[in-house]
Inverse folding.
């Protein structure tokens, strides 16, 4: 109304100034403050917008009669949202605020380096001026916190992976996500119960340790290194950790990351309460490739001089000028270490780093030194306690069933058989309809493996013995030769004397 009035009263050249003036005039006398939270802020997605949407969808005081419902692809939860241009009232600490969802058509596509949605969406928050400080100081933080909590509780965990070649998706994120539905839990994980309890306690301490980390001046993060042969449950352990703590997983594919700075950007875009995973770390990066900028250096591990020499030779200016080009990848170990425990690793809190490897002996000692990977977890071949868990999960056997059905010798041969939990579960799944047969087949497999193993060991021992014997023969032969030489030398000396 005022605008049309202004248009009739004021000449065009004065119109803009007069609108500005009236806006100022009204906002001065208005009892309310307005905050706009747009979906896209410049080129970045506004996290607050998503948080508000989620928060309002669950708010108990929803008064709107028209709501929009959404369900993400593969997600099992339905999200309620405010329909276009709808309002709802919320209250916080006795203060009433009003939210309005405003959707307008975007006018003409302006130039942008990524396509913007056709609609311009945003929330407007209206509060009384006297309550302005409450909103700015704590209400919005409360909304963010609540939204994060809701997402973790209601929705499935998310599994993120870095997009191919470092490209960004429509929302400007280098991570692509899918709902994470791995059913592995600590209850289904077959491993030594004591070790399992220790890991669970460690995780819980971490998740509840905000004040501890604050007090001790440490970054709120923790690193786990899982190592062991293929099929011993390393990936299952990561899934169990995520399900136990309710964290999202960022599965970092290092081969898709080209430079250290790209790695840093990826890290910056991860959220807190997440597990950042690098699987098969020995395969994804030439891990001994450190450049000269790494001061926390090789010596930190206090390890073999031979390897340190390697770093020294790589640290020459000529070598670092190559920047690891010889490996075809400019990600360096120092870049990776910065990622996990440099200053940048603290740009968010409550993060867990998990590295997995099948060959711990191939890893750089700098990666293994204490403080870097806080806990080294050995995922071993199937042990007897682990077997009992698998029998319980797959066949429903309890302790007494195991004692009754399983021959006593299993406990003796299982370690020698070196069967992975994956091998064992395969036998059990194959025969899950016939429990007796499952046990018979399992025992047969264990016996066969342990026998083969022992035979191989005997053969190895024999070979070693043979090698030793031949060495001994050689040594005796050598000694005889030497004795011959000495005698000759003596003769020579005598001759010299003469
Ligand atoms: N400790 C375990 N407890 C329960 N199931 C297990 C365990 N280890 C392996 N399995 C079963 O074997 C399959 C393979 O395990 P998983 O992928 O976790 O092994 P991994 O150690 O990550 O192997 P890789 O080194 O090849 O990645 C899983 O589907 C899981 O069901
Ligand atoms: Mg795995």
């Amino acid at each position: 109304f005022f605008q049309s009035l202004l248009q009739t009263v004021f000449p065009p050249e004065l119109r803009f100034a007069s609108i500005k003036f009236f806006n100022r005039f009204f906002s001065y006398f208005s009892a309310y403050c307005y905050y706009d939270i747009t979906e896209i802020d410049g080129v970045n997605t506004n996290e607050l917008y998503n948080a508000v949407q989620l928060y309002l969808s669950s708010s108990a005081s929803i008064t709107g009669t028209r709501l929009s419902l959404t369900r993400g692809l593969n997600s099992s939860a339905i999200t309620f949202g405010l329909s276009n241009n709808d309002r709802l009232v919320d209250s916080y600490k006795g203060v009433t605020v009003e939210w309005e969802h405003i959707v307008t058509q975007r006018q003409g596509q302006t130039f942008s380096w990524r396509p913007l949605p056709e609609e311009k969406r945003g929330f407007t928050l209206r509060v009384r001026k006297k309550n302005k400080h409450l909103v700015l100081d704590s209400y919005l933080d409360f909304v963010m916190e609540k939204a994060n909590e809701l997402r973790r509780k209601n929705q499935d965990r998310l599994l993120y992976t870095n997009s191919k070649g470092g490209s960004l998706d429509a929302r400007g994120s280098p991570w692509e996500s899918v709902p994470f539905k791995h059913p592995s839990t600590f209850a289904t994980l077959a491993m030594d119960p004591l070790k399992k309890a220790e890991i669970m306690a460690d995780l819980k301490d971490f998740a509840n340790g905000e004040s501890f980390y604050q007090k001790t001046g440490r970054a709120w993060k923790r690193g786990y290194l899982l190592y062991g042969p293929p099929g011993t449950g390393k990936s299952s352990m990561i899934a169990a950790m995520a399900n136990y703590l309710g964290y999202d997983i960022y599965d970092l594919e290092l081969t898709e990351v080209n430079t250290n700075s790209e790695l840093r950007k990826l890290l910056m875009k991860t959220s807190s309460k997440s597990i950042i995973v690098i699987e098969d770390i020995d395969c994804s990066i030439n891990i001994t490739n450190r450049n000269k900028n790494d001061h926390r250096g090789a010596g930190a591990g206090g390890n073999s001089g031979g390897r340190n020499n390697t770093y020294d030779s790589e640290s020459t200016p000529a070598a670092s000028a190559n920047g690891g080009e010889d490996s075809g990848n400019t990600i360096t170990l120092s870049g990776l270490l910065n990622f996990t425990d440099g200053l940048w690793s603290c740009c968010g809190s409550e993060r867990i780093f998990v590295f997995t490897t099948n060959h711990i002996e191939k890893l750089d000692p700098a990666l293994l030194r204490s403080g870097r990977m806080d806990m080294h977890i050995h995922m071993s071949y199937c042990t007897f306690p682990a077997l009992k868990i698998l029998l319980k999960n797959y066949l429903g056997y309890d302790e007494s069933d195991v004692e009754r059905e399983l021959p006593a010798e299993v406990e003796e041969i299982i370690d020698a058989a070196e069967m992975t939990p994956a091998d064992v579960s395969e036998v059990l799944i194959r025969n899950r309809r016939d429990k007796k047969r499952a046990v018979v087949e399992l025992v047969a497999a264990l016996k066969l493996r342990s026998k083969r193993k022992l035979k191989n060991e005997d053969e190895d021992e024999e070979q070693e013995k043979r090698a030793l014997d031949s060495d001994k023969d050689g040594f005796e032969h050598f000694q005889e030769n030497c004795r011959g030489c000495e005698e000759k030398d003596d003769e020579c000396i005598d001759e010299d004397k003469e």
